[in-house]
């Protein structure tokens, strides 16, 4: 597996630089699917996606504010960072997996989070990024062409038997998985059980704010909970002193018996024998909304996209690609 040489030269990121284009919502309905047994599902914006044929984020219409296009020198065509989203199956609802564990599953925040993060990396660093993004299953042989993959809302992840060994081989041979946007203990337990099937001899370790990953590009010197991003709607309310959830940046509706069970953000990692991260999980945090929804509300952009989701992503990706 080839890794690009990603020596990032981070430019000054000012609020005036990171302004997203806007378009009004078209009012399309939300939905989770297009009929029992169908491979066609809906994005949060109501656009139809065929799970059997979808390959890139650019194939799907934006349901947020859109992402500019860009091109790279042909010489970099095979030497770019690609946002790779994993298409996975959700576990059935049960006593240990509540329906609230995932409304959308793998397609959450798609395609805007993928494209926006790729654009910001291209814009504010020296990293060259793929303007299309990629969607693939863990059984796709192309998995081994990419050093980094992203899995969103894995709180109801169900790994098929035929996916376990390819993912293990991928991780053991230099690949890294980032899991993001899952909340509460039940969701964590389900995700951890799935990863235990892949790496039964490994355990997650909690990272604290002294870890180099938080200081390698942006020197992030805040308590970890100050990096927590909830869904955009809640985040906006959390900024309003007149709101009943002013200051509340955690999503706590997943386990009524533990109403604040998702209050504390965690960054956890699994390392290989040489100290390289194979899996990193941002638990009790929705970085994807920080990238996806950056242009929908000025306050959300300045507090959550600009201060939290983007600096954390730049640091994590730089660290993963260079260690």
Describe the structure.
This protein is an alpha/beta fold and 323 residues long. It contains 6 helices and 11 strands. The strands form 4 sheets. It has a 5-stranded mixed beta sheet. Strand 10 and strand 11 (277-283) form a beta hairpin. The radius of gyration is 18 Å and the shape is globular. Mean pLDDT is 87; it is low at 2-36.
Can you give the helix content as a percent range?
Answer: 10-25%
State the order of secondary-structure elements, H for helix, E for strand: EEEEHEEEHEHEHEEHH
- Main sheet properties: 5 strands, mixed
Strand order of the largest sheet: 6-8-11-10-9
For the structure shown, list the relevant keywords.
323 residues; alpha/beta; two-stranded antiparallel ribbon; 11 strands; globular; disordered N terminus
Task: Write the topology of this structure.
Layout: E1 40-42, E2 48-50, E3 84-86, E4 89-90, H1 112-124, E5 134-136, E6 148-152, E7 157-158, H2 161-172, E8 176-180, H3 184-198, E9 205-206, H4 232-238, E10 266-271, E11 277-283, H5 287-292, H6 298-322
Parallel strand pairs: 3-5, 6-8, 8-11
Antiparallel strand pairs: 1-2, 4-7, 9-10, 10-11
